[in-house]
Amino acid sequence: MKKIFLVAVSGLLIISTASAQQKATAVHTLQSFRILALFENGGHHLAFTDAARPWLDSLAVRYNFSIDYIHSTDTISNAVLSSYQLFLQLDYPPYGWTEQAQQAFIQYIEQGRGGWIGLHHASLLGNFDGYNMWSWFYDFMGSIQFKDYIPAFASAQVHIEDTSHPCVKGLPENFSIEKEEWYTYDKSPRSNVHVIASVDEKSYAPGSPVKMGDHPVIWTNDHYPARNIYIFMGHSPGLFQNEAFTLLFRNAILWASQK
């Protein structure tokens, strides 16, 4: 039996005989949005991106959004970003950007034109590959600089601190990440950002001396109008077999894409 739904559209009351499934699809249509995803087209992080793209494309079909992929900042401008509700720094460092891209991104975030999700490499802050550190991005990420990492990888437990945040809805308070590099920084960003989750360094397996004590791994900087979230995890393609990570990532996309 079909159910009758009353839907208000632009002041008009429309009677619909859509099924529950069709109604859900209509809701997703109303929430349609566009994502611009920036990734490195090479290097040892490419395996993660190769796993991310089909997962993202499948999610796009399910939630009726579109996603465009770019692997350099050459085309980024104010005009280009105006077409997107979410900027996904899928795997790209905060250096080597064109001046035009930097200025467009700053305005996008500071004016709340759209949301931002940064994974893994987005916190690689410092002087790398002949580029000086981008001072604005340094502030945006909580005034931290990259210090060290676990090159042989380690598994660990991630602990959610803010269980009320929409990006961690449905996640257990503690979940495992099987393989990650676990960057450390010159200091914790906690005093400058809102921490959502941290890693329990005592849970590293195998154990590692590369530690920083207070070690946030998911946070948002609420000093900026744009919805934004940094998720440190993003190296291993195996993350897309991890239900906690994929739920976190999906939640982040749906949250950050909405103003």
What does this structure look like?
The strands form three sheets. The chain has a nine-stranded mixed beta sheet, covered by helices on one side. It is globular. The chain has helices spanning 20-30, 46-63, 78-81, 99-110, 135-140, 243-256; strands at residues 5-9, 12-16, 34-39, 66-70, 86-91, 115-119, 146-148, 154-160, 174-180, 184-185, 194-205, 216-220, 228-231. By secondary structure, it is α/β, with parallel strands linked by helices. Strand 5 (86-91), helix 4 (99-110) and strand 6 form a beta-alpha-beta unit.
Brief description of this entry?
With 259 residues, the protein is an alpha/beta fold.
Number of helices: 6
Shape: globular
Describe the largest sheet.
9 strands, mixed
- Strand element count: 13
Poorly predicted tracts of residues: 1-30
Find the structural class using helix and strand composition. alpha/beta
Portion in strands: 25-35%
Distance between the termini: 37 Å
Rg calc: 19 Å
Helix content: 25-40%
Encode the helix/strand succession as letters: EEHEHEHEHEHEEEEEEEH
